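Q: Sequence in, structure out?
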Amino acid sequence: MTKDDDELDISLVFELGETTWKVLVTILSIKRPIGPRELARHLDLSSPSVALYHLDKLKDHKLVVKDVHGEYQIDPKADIGFLDNFLFLKEKIVPRTLFYAVFLTIVLVIYVAIVRFDYSTHNVFALVLGISGCAFLWAEVIRIWKGLA
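A: Exactly. Output:
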């Protein structure tokens, strides 16, 4: 993916707006077709016509398709590769980096708990490496989450 592709993806997210973004995340999370009425109830929207407006907006951007039953699902041809670094859990979007940060933090805590620290080169190097790795991953998780808010 080139820099231009990244800029296009980010601009698309901003162009969609907050509610349309929530609709997209919901459709990605439930992994099945959904109609406007069910979507309105699911997201506590004021009416099915509001849900339909956001679904049509996604359809105009070629992100969803409407089936013969009037339900919408992610278009198999949609270019949403920029979302591969996220997991969609119960209408929440979680960066995959979070799991790496949690794993490395747990490994570091276990290391500190079971290894006697004696200022040897090995211990200092392991702690510096572990702490800097954790700091980098947690900073990245925070940066990504702020970008989604």
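DSSP finds six helices and four strands in the chain.
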